[in-house]
Amino acid sequence: MPGPISDKTAAASEKNPSQYSKGLEGVIAAQTALSLVDGEKSELSYRGIQVGELAEQATFEETVYLLWFGCFPKTAELETFKRELSAARAVPPGLLSILKSFPKEAHPMAWLRTAASLLSLFDPEAEDRSLEANRRKAMRLTAAFPALIAAQHRLRKGQDLIVPDAKLSHAANFLYMMHGSVPHAEMEKALDTYLILLADHGLNASTFAARVTVATESDIYSGVTSAIGTLKGDLHGSANQRAMEMILDIGTPDRAESYVQDLLAHKKKVMGFGHRIYKKKDPRAVAFHEIARKMCEKAGDLHWMEISDRVEKVMWETKQIPCNVDFFSASVLYLLGFPVDFFTTVFAASRVAGWTAHIIEQLSDNRLIRPAAEYTGLVNQHYVPMSRR
Ligand SMILES: CC(C)(COP(=O)(O)OP(=O)(O)OC[C@H]1O[C@@H](n2cnc3c(N)ncnc32)[C@H](O)[C@@H]1OP(=O)(O)O)[C@@H](O)C(=O)NCCC(=O)NCCS
Q1: Catalytic position from the list 153, 170, 275, 289
Q2: Does the beta carbon of 219 lie inside 6 Å of ligand 1?
Q3: Is the shortest distance between the CB of 272 and ligand 1 below 6 Å?
Q4: Domain that holds residue 163
Q5: Is 45 part of any domain?
Q6: pLDDT for 16
Q7: Model confidence pLDDT, tens digit, residues 317-345
Q8: Is the CB of 281 under 6 A from ligand 1?
């Protein structure tokens, strides 16, 4: 085993100390015209439009169109787009029979990552890297995610799979394929809003992974598969699941303060809090707080809100760390009936629109993404013969 870093290497690594940024904080690693994450103003916009405005007035389908094509669709364009998207919802039959052989209890994100990768084997255009083919594949991927997610959910419960309904919106069809009944308009709107607000977010970790993958001139399926694997981590997409598990574990509002203080005393992260860019507030968290509160009021049960509000207050008063998108959106997904361990897959069902938009953007002006590493190991060492080790 090599010994501790020698003075010689330490001196070598100090030559350019300003060039290394742990976690790439502050490093500009891509140019994008898709979304602007403004930490100072606590704002997020897609193609210059505040996400709050999109959540109130647009649909997920219009938002995806905006991300992929850079403008809003006119009436006929939107109709065609919705028709094409809904036509691509069904999982290819060959893939479906493979999915049925997957272990039912597999981690939902591992399942989705594998299923998304397998999709490429059933796509005759998988290796066509033209812009037109990539747009069609972006559509197929975005359309198929709800079907893949619902398939695991229902197979796990031993239920028949639901055939997608082309008449329903993307959000309504998602809930329909999960639960087997057409959702109430308010539920549809809540999921549609979730899908809009999570669709893109600058150079977040999974989007970066997608761009790095396709920048090697690999294919869009590989890019999306990398992204799903990256989103799976607790510090990124799985924070929504972990936040809900924490809220459920707290159980009653009176336990919230001591629970959080205990986590902090043990130097543990409180899931659904903190952000690399938003230090004052995450605009999406503000929107989800309101949506979750209304849904709880409608359900006549403010229990989860009271716990969540207490956790938020303690985190702010103790650490001045605001909640992020995953904290209150976790309650929204819970109230929509998604199993807690499926929360991150719902995040993926939204973000796949952003990943594919970024992949297409990356390829429009591509250069291999290959940063440098600061070497901190030993230098001038020699092979040690077996007899002298
Ligand atoms: C999102 C996150 C990964 C950002 O990480 P980052 O920019 O690298 O920030 P750091 O992890 O270095 O945190 C900076 C400081 O705030 C603290 N902190 C950040 N988030 C915290 C959290 N959720 N709970 C407790 N402390 C937290 C860190 O412990 C650190 O404190 P220190 O300087 O005393 O060591 C981080 O806030 C986190 O792990 N949050 C929980 C997971 C989560 O919700 N992820 C979803 C993000 S949308």
Answers
A1: 275
A2: no
A3: yes
A4: 51-235+345-364
A5: no
A6: 53
A7: 999 999 999 999 999 999 999 999 999 99
A8: no
Q: Where are the alpha helices (DSSP H) in the chain?
A: 7-13, 51-57, 60-69, 75-87, 93-99, 108-119, 131-156, 170-179, 185-198, 205-215, 220-231, 239-250, 256-265, 283-299, 303-319, 325-335, 343-364
Backbone angles phi, psi at 36, to 5 degrees: -115, 120
- Ligand 1 centre to CA of 274 (Å) is 5
What is the pLDDT, as a whole number, of residue 241? Answer: 98
Cβ of 276 below 6 Å from ligand 1: yes
How far, in Å, CA of 108 to CA of 326, rounded?
Answer: 17
| Dist CA 274 CA 281 (whole Å) | 9
Compute the mean pLDDT over every residue in the chain, rounded to the nearest whole number.
94
Residue 372 lies in a domain: no
Q: Is residue 370 part of a domain?
A: no
Q: Enter the pTM of the model.
A: 0.94
> Is 170 marked active-site?
no
Q: How many Å lie between the centroid of ligand 1 and the Cα of residue 321?
A: 8
CB of 269 within 6 A of ligand 1: the answer is yes
326 is catalytic: yes
Instruction: Indicate if 243 and 225 belong to the same structural domain.
Output: no
In this predicted structure, the answer to whether residue 6 has a pLDDT above a threshold of 60 is: no
CATH of the domain at 263: 1.10.230.10
Residues 229 and 248 both lie in one domain: no
For atom 12 of ligand 1, the residue with the nearest CA is 276
d(CA 342, ligand 1 centre) in Å: 23
Query: Residues 225, 246: one domain?
Result: no
- Is 321 a pocket residue for ligand 1 (Cβ < 6 Å)? yes
The whole-number average pLDDT for the span 198-210 is 98
Query: Annotated catalytic residue: which of 123, 200, 282, 326?
Result: 326
Is the same domain home to 231 and 307? no
pLDDT at residue 2 in the model: 43
Q: Tell me which of 10 and 243 has the higher pLDDT.
A: 243
CA distance 326 to 244: 9
283 within a domain of the structure (yes/no): yes
- CA 215, 219, 221, 222 dihedral sign is negative
